[in-house]
Amino acid sequence: MRILLWHVHGAWTTAFVHGRHEYVVPVLPDRGPDGVGLARTYAWPDSVTEMPPEQLRDEGFDVVLLQRPHELEGLAQDWLGRRPGRDIPAVYVEHNAPQGRIADMRHPAADRPDLLVVHVTHFNALFWDSGSTRTRVIEHGIVDPGHRYTGELPRAAVVINEARRRARVTGTDLLDRFSQAAPIDLFGMDAASLGGIEDLPQRDLHDEMARRRVYLHPIRWTSLGLSLLEAMHLGMPVVALGTTEAHEAVPHEAGAVSTRIDVLTGAVRRLIDDPEEAVARGSAARAAALERYGLERFLADWDDVLEEVT
């Protein structure tokens, strides 16, 4: 199939475009949010091409993947000259946990019989109100980076994009408390503003994460972070705040999951002080991630959905 999608979430898109299809991503001269184009810090296959908006109307696509409300509300139709779901098959991929009061968590694609909403976690599907719109859950898949864990540095790695801006949502305010248990290295977009390391290519990021003794996931309320699953694939033991989907993704033998900060700081300290336990729990984390979040299963699930909607 020939699929149009916007480059919104780099790690998720990296997994998606490793399928057997042809993928087109819009590109703008400034490579802003609506036209990022090809990835520059992720490795994408040659089956992905970028294209300016003015060329999209003359191109044939089998399906369009929507990922943000404004794509559904006008951007896709303006650029394609076709209405998603009506003139061209469309899937809305919901990456995010809903915001606001539970009674008001209505999805922007609710009550659209011409669309299919695909949630990336069961938690998201449970909390979003999609009305009569058909829904599916396709859990994340990861391009396996391989077992790289060395744990040579007695430090904790954290990956948060825009940690300063997102603050309490991503648990940025908790980092000081965790730093009392172990030194913390923060990675991600804008991490430098908080003294961290930002904007590493994915392979370099994975190498640096794997040198740290433990991976810390302090997220309060987002969808399941792909960096957590990548850390597990790397063979890192993980300590995670037990919110949203984390308790489903991280088995007990892989580290620690709790809503009690004292339990989590204790787990970080113990893993830092016991490299042998860290290695064992990291191996368990990798085994669990490969079984549940493998790329082959992810792509097969997506092939089923793409065939259904087209």
Describe this structure as you would to a colleague.
- It is a single chain.
- The protein has 310 residues and is α/β, with parallel strands linked by helices.
- The protein is built from 12 helices and 12 strands.
- The strands form 2 sheets. It has a 7-stranded parallel beta sheet with strand order 3-2-1-4-5-6-7. A 5-stranded parallel beta sheet has the order 9-8-10-11-12, with helices on both faces.
- Helix 8 packs across helix 11.
- It is globular.
- The N and C termini lie close together (9 Å).
SS element count, helices: 12
Element-by-element helix/strand order: EHEEHEHEEHEEHHEHEHEHEHHH
Strand order of the biggest β-sheet: 3-2-1-4-5-6-7
Q: Name the shape in a single word.
A: globular
Query: Biggest β-sheet: count, sense, barrel?
Result: 7 strands, parallel
Strand content: 15-25%
Number of strands: 12
Q: State the helicity in percent bands.
A: 25-40%
What would you call the structural class? alpha/beta
Beginning-to-end CA distance, first to last residue: 9 Å
List segments where confidence is low: pLDDT < 50 over at least 5 consecutive residues: none
What value does the average pLDDT take? 97
SSE topology:
Elements: E1 2-5, H1 10-16, E2 22-26, E3 48-51, H2 53-56, E4 63-66, H3 69-80, E5 90-94, E6 116-119, H4 122-127, E7 134-137, E8 153-159, H5 163-166, H6 175-178, E9 184-187, H7 202-211, E10 212-217, H8 226-234, E11 238-241, H9 246-249, E12 255-258, H10 261-273, H11 275-292, H12 295-309
Parallel strand pairs: 1-2, 1-4, 2-3, 4-5, 5-6, 6-7, 8-9, 8-10, 10-11, 11-12
